[in-house]
Amino acid sequence: MAQSSSSKKLIILGALFVVSIVGLVIWNQNRQSQHQELVIGISPPFAHPLQAAAKEAEKQGIHVKLVEFSDWNTPNITLNNGDIDANFFQHQPFLSNAIKEGGYKLKAFGMGAASHVGLYSKKYKSLDELPQNARVVVPNDPVNQGRALLLLQQAKLIQLKDPNNYLSKLSDITVNPKNLKFIEVEGPQTARAIDDVDLAFGYPHYLRLAKTADPNSALLLDDTTNKRYAILFVVRDDYEDKDGKLKKFIEIYQNSPAVKAAIDEDIGPKLWFPGWV
């Protein structure tokens, strides 16, 4: 009986040892898999094209995880902390300002699409109809506010101290004949604020996502095709692109017909242009 009991104990111990080894192997495989995964932080309006790129990348053995952020601050904080490999939501002026203000160690790695921006209204059909003291929504961050003010200047609604300064702020307005009243909100919220004001600066992809206005219904679109506003793939300064995964993913994004179709659908064929050519 004692010998039989000892044998059973050995069998149980042996089985536990095997289970432990198998568990360690599985854990290690999962760890390696997660390490090989390319994790990119994004804003929701850019999800569809990047999902299309990720689907094609998977066929080439590149595993991509997309993490969505609802604001424009957390993606850079998270990237700077090393919790993601890259992010995709900002253009160069925004990145430069974020680095200046936040002290981030970040850099651009690749170029994405750039979109036009517009002035939208659900109350008026032309800029000429805009009344005195009209309420106008603009972004509250320095970079996109500057872009909005340049567009309002293009519309001849205001005049700026330096007509070419893309970092102009509200205090730089020197002429405001209609006495426009400006309401500052976070960039992503401009699309939702359009229902409550007379005029709103807007991004086509955010308007389409919010379903508050047709992106093609702008009273005026900006006339610039400056690639400074192309959305960037951003990484840490010390980022090492192991096996060229991110480089390959960006090439897929830039060249895939499926990605182009997704951008056309989300922004509008006439409302965007490639920032990499």
Largest sheet data: 5 strands, mixed
Large-scale geometry: globular
Beta percentage is: 15-25%
Secondary-structure-derived class: alpha/beta
Radius of gyration: 25 Å
Number of DSSP E strands: 14
Poorly predicted residue ranges: 16-34
Distance between the termini: 81 Å
**Strand order, biggest sheet?**
2-1-3-13-4
Instruction: Please give the count of helices.
Output: 9
Share of helix, binned: 40-55%
Average pLDDT reading: 90
Element pattern in H and E: HEHEHEHEEEEHEEEHEHEEHHE
Description:
The protein is an alpha/beta fold. Helix content is 40%, strand content 20%. The longest helix has 35 residues, at 2-36. The N and C termini lie far apart (81 Å). It is a lipid-anchor.
Keywords:
about 20% strand, about 280 residues
Topology at a glance:
Blueprint: H1 2-36, E1 38-42, H2 47-59, E2 64-68, H3 74-80, E3 86-90, H4 92-102, E4 106-111, E5 113-115, E6 118-120, E7 135-139, H5 142-154, E8 159-160, E9 173-175, E10 181-185, H6 190-193, E11 199-202, H7 204-210, E12 220-221, E13 232-236, H8 245-255, H9 257-266, E14 272-274
Parallel strand pairs: 1-2, 1-3, 7-10, 7-11
Antiparallel strand pairs: 3-13, 4-13, 5-14, 6-11, 6-12, 8-9
Helix pairs in contact: 2-8, 2-9
Organism: Acinetobacter soli NIPH 2899
Family: Belongs to the NlpA lipoprotein family.
Keywords: Lipoprotein, Membrane, Palmitate, Signal, Transmembrane, Transmembrane helix
Q: What is shown here, in short?
A:
The protein is built from 9 helices and 14 strands.
